[in-house]
């Protein structure tokens, strides 16, 4: 499979936020979100076998722990990434899959926690979510909405109500989008939507979602990759 990077850091944006985690970042994406902070994954990378990826994960986190499969869009390499996820589960790792949900998810091993990033209108990739994937969600999965405006918030709120998602997944996450050219200050000034404003909307609507901030962008310079 084509890999951009494998590194160890803290998980940054789910109910697993704050936990040490090995990230396996696959190359290539078929979407072009306006605020994407991972454009460096769109090309390049290096070809690695399942065994080579497994060995690197083991070197970084011997004998278990949390591994996130991300990208880019990892499900573009479904043929290779599904056996990889199964191998990691068999080796005792907890496996997270970060995906846009544009590709079919029904073949993802049941033990994997899917973190599905449903694209909102301001991403420029709204309408790309494959509705069939709602059937593949389990009580361990998480749905994430990255929000840049009130229109995005309204879309996310209506989406979870329309599909009655509150009780079907482990968590629904509302996260302000970050400016993709952010650097320097490690604070919310880079957010495209003020977290305080988002919090007030969520409180007013008693929304069954939790506010998430991209933890790593408050720990490291937002421009730093591989953290
Ligand atoms: S799906 Fe993810 S990697 Fe692809 S363009 Fe959107 S934010 Fe970037």
Q: What is the compact description of this entry?
A:
The chain is α/β, with parallel strands linked by helices.
Overview of the structural elements:
There is one protein chain. By secondary structure, the chain is an alpha/beta fold. The protein is 23% helix and 22% strand. It contains 5 helices and 9 strands; from the N terminus they run E-E-E-H-E-H-E-E-E-H-E-H-E-H. Strand 4, helix 2 and strand 5 form a beta-alpha-beta unit. The longest helix is centred in the middle third of the chain and has 13 residues. The chain is globular and about 50 Å long. It binds iron/sulfur cluster.
SSE arrangement, N to C: EEEHEHEEEHEHEH
Unreliable sequence segments: none
Distance linking N and C termini: 22 Å
Which cofactor or ligand species appear?
iron/sulfur cluster
The oligomeric state is: single chain
What's the count of strands?
A: 9
Helix content: 10-25%
Radius of gyration: 17 Å
- Using the alpha-carbon principal axes, give the shape: globular
Largest sheet: 9 strands, mixed
Average pLDDT figure: 95
Strand content: 15-25%
Structural class: alpha/beta
What's the tally of helices? 5
- Largest sheet: spatial strand order: 3-1-2-4-5-6-7-8-9
């Amino acid at each position: 499979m084509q890999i951009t990077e494998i590194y160890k850091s803290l998980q940054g944006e789910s109910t697993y936020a704050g936990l040490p985690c090995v990230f396996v970042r696959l190359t290539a994406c078929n979407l072009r979100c306006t605020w994407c902070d991972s454009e460096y994954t769109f090309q390049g990378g290096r070809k690695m076998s399942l065994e080579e990826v497994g060995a690197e994960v083991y070197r970084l986190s011997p004998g278990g722990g949390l591994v996130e499969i991300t990208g880019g869009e990892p499900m573009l390499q479904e043929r290779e990434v599904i056996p990889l996820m199964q191998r990691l589960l068999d080796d005792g790792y907890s496996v997270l899959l970060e995906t846009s949900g544009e590709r079919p998810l029904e073949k993802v091993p049941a033990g994997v926690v899917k973190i599905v990033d449903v694209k909102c209108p301001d991403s420029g990739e709204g309408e790309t979510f494959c509705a069939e994937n709602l059937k593949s969600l389990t009580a361990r999965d998480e749905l994430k909405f990255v929000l840049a405006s009130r229109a995005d918030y309204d879309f996310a709120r209506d989406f979870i109500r329309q599909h009655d998602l509150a009780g079907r997944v482990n968590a629904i996450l509302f996260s302000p989008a970050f400016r993709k050219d952010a650097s320097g200050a490690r604070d919310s000034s880079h957010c495209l939507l003020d977290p305080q404003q988002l919090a007030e909307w969520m409180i007013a609507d008693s929304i069954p979602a939790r506010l998430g901030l991209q933890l790593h962008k408050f720990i490291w310079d937002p421009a730093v990759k591989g953290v």
